[in-house]
Specification:
Elements: E1 2-11, E2 19-29, E3 32-37, E4 48-59, E5 61-67, H1 82-95, H2 100-116, E6 119-125, H3 130-143, E7 146-150, E8 152-153, H4 167-179, E9 186-188, E10 191-192, H5 200-213, E11 218-221, H6 225-234, H7 243-246, E12 256-259, H8 265-274, E13 277-280, H9 282-287, H10 295-300, E14 304-307, H11 319-336, H12 346-353, H13 355-361, E15 373-376, H14 390-400, E16 406-411, E17 414-417
Parallel strand pairs: 1-4, 5-6, 6-7, 7-9, 8-10, 11-12, 12-13, 13-14
Antiparallel strand pairs: 1-2, 2-3, 4-15, 15-16, 16-17
Length: 419
């Protein structure tokens, strides 16, 4: 089936670059992008037209790090440091997802909020519960959200008797979960919560499962100074945090590591050499007082940086807000660095929240990609004193849009919201 989207098309093909096609045409063949044009070629004139008029057609957003079972605790515990926050709020809340009926209610709402805010791709943590993780994957699939979900593994330093597995349970339940993952657009990813909550035996088994089944891995790295010191106490044979993953075969191509706020030059070099992906979570890093990540330095060093909402350390799910927080955080970093570090521009922030994440899943806004896009109606914004360029309207949309401004969402070539 041939379909055509008509409107002002804005996307970021590379870091810092915007490509704008005013009154452009985006042609789909069976959901796959066949071309983007300023004038519609005659051979495509027979396609089904979706005429969005004066509205903006943008890339959809990719959230590369969030915790689904923390959705009910958004905005709670923001005065606590990371490790205290986990013990006081996170583990008891996540334990509630042993109840699959409760999980269904929460995850249905989460999936709806994600997709209606234009997030079509995720790299997401579930809880340690197999059945609730299947529920999460099912609800994401129904809503039109695509990507990876991981059943969390943790056999130590949780809340014993409340929220923790035995090593044997963690391994056997992971295998049971993987056997039941039969979804078209939501796939499994191996998910040790982080080094302190996983024994050596469990980490070794997870590394083996990932290798045997060809699965990606996601976890956390160098978020908080106390966490880093704890890791080195638990692994005295490791000089750096990243080695606690590497020695179990989990530090590899496409491994996603959230935060990396305090990763030094050696750890960053190991990221680049192994094509490890950074999921930068500006909101969470500020809320939990972890620090301000040196994103510009990472980019200059050739590290693959993406963005994550990291709910509920981060308090906002819409990725357009995460992008603008990321830009503000980079300006704080510039001030911390005595004004020597350039802050992230709007096109750069947009790239990190869209293209950089979409690359993880195989692209999303180039010829040959299944379309991932949002249509934004900025008609209710404050009236300007003069006509605005599409570039200016795009920037204002990133900073001012709300859920109601997103009138259509396309995910994996399918229109899943609006028309």
């Amino acid at each position: 089936m041939k379909e055509i989207l008509k409107g002002h098309i804005v996307h970021a093909p590379a870091l810092g670059q915007l490509e704008i096609i005013e009154d452009g045409y985006l042609v789909l063949e069976d959901g796959v992008i066949a071309g983007i044009y300023s004038q519609l070629p005659g051979e495509h004139a027979d396609g089904k037209m979706h005429d969005y008029g004066d509205r903006l057609i943008l890339q959809s957003f990719a959230d590369m790090h969030l915790h689904a079972p923390q959705y009910p605790m958004l905005g709670m515990g923001m005065d606590l440091p990371l490790l205290d926050w986990l013990d006081t709020y996170t583990f008891p809340v996540e334990a509630r997802f042993a109840d699959t009926e409760y999980a269904r209610r929460v995850y249905r709402r989460l999936a709806n909020e994600l997709i209606t805010n234009g997030t079509t791709r995720v790299c997401m943590f579930s809880s340690l519960h197999t059945d609730a993780t299947w529920v999460l994957m099912e609800e994401l699939e129904k809503a039109g959200v695509t990507g990876f979900v991981g059943k969390v593994n943790m056999d130590r330093n949780g809340k014993e008797g409340v929220y923790q597995e035995t090593t044997e349970e963690s391994v056997s339940e992971t295998l049971r979960w993987l056997e039941g993952c039969h979804f078209d657009h939501v796939k499994p990813i191996i998910t040790p919560r982080f080094t302190p909550t996983c024994s050596d035996e469990l980490m070794a088994q997870l590394g083996k499962i990932a290798a045997e089944k060809g699965l990606y891995v996601q976890s956390h790295l160098s978020e908080n100074r106390a966490e880093m010191a704890w890791v080195l106490e638990l692994h005295p044979d490791c000089k750096q945090y990243w080695e606690s993953y590497h020695k179990f075969g989990q530090w590899k191509d496409h491994t996603v590591m959230a935060h990396c706020v305090h990763s030094d030059a050696s750890e960053r070099r190991a990221m680049r050499e192994h094509n490890v992906v950074v999921a930068h979570c500006a909101d969470s890093n500020i809320n939990i007082s972890s620090g301000v990540c040196p994103v510009r330095q990472m980019l200059d060093e050739g590290i693959w940086v993406t963005l994550g909402s990291d709910i509920a350390g981060g308090q906002q799910l819409p990725m357009y807000r995460v992008i603008t927080t990321t830009i503000r955080s980079s300006k704080v970093r510039q001030m911390m660095d005595d004004w020597k570090t350039p802050f992230l521009t709007v096109p750069e922030g947009y790239y990190l929240g869209t293209t950089a994440g979409h690359k993880y899943f195989g692209g999303g806004f180039a010829v040959g990609d299944a379309l991932h896009a949002v249509v934004v109606d900025d008609g209710n914004f404050t009236e300007s004193t003069r006509p605005l360029s599409i570039n200016e309207r795009f920037e204002r949309a990133l900073y001012m849009m709300e859920q109601r401004n997103i009138i259509s969402v396309w995910s994996a070539g399918r229109c899943v919201v609006g028309r």
